[in-house]
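Take a look at the protein record below with the fold in mind.
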Amino acid sequence: MLPYPQIDPVALDLGLIKIHWYGLMYLVGIGGAWLLASRRLADFDASWSKEKLSDLVFWVAMGVILGGRLGYVLFYDFAAYIVEPLKILRVWEGGMSFHGGLLGVMLATWWFGRRNNKSFFQLMDFIAPLVPIGLGAGRIGNFINAELWGKATDLPWAMVFPTDPQQLARHPSQLYQFALEGLALFAILWFYSRRPRPTMAVSGMFALCYGIFRFIVEFVRVPDAQLGYLAGGWLTMGQILCLPMVLGGLGLVAYAYKRQAAPGAA
């Protein structure tokens, strides 16, 4: 068993204001995405200025935050927020959903594309390789907060999390997700997108790989207490939400290459 590193979730205490590591992880994700997007900007559209890229990153970030919060409310704890609607404003209590954030990003991308003469999938293909930076940083934030831990195990790298009332040795599932959704997904998408790909292929690869990685880790991650297991006790909410991502990702990749191979295709 490995000892859990005791890291204070508060990175900086200024008295009335406390800066949490989890919040800083959002800044790492957004800042890292902007830096890498700047490197790829000339290949995407040489006519775009850094200011236009900053606008895109801003709206995508808003999609992540607002969509992530609303997605958590709708997918994971709707009943509690119906009883106490103002609870949605208490973001410091936690509660963000990747799938809600993805929907927020898709909506922001569609809106921004319409105003800048870019198709939805042109922008999504550009954005997709940048997303794992934020995903990986977010999982490190979960680990520092000692939240979203895994099931009990006797594996040598198991950890006892201070927030666990049972104090059992558990899978550090946050680190599994960091490795898969952050590092592995970034490597796959970054190298895959370095060569020209048909429109929709990079977006499809993101959906496919993320869906598979998240589905796998959910088998060792403790489901949300208010939901437990669904679908007859077999699947978590995360796995149910990932199934359409896997199927949709496969469909997008297949359709992208089929359309490219069609006679007269551009």
Summary: The chain has two domains: 47-118, 125-260.
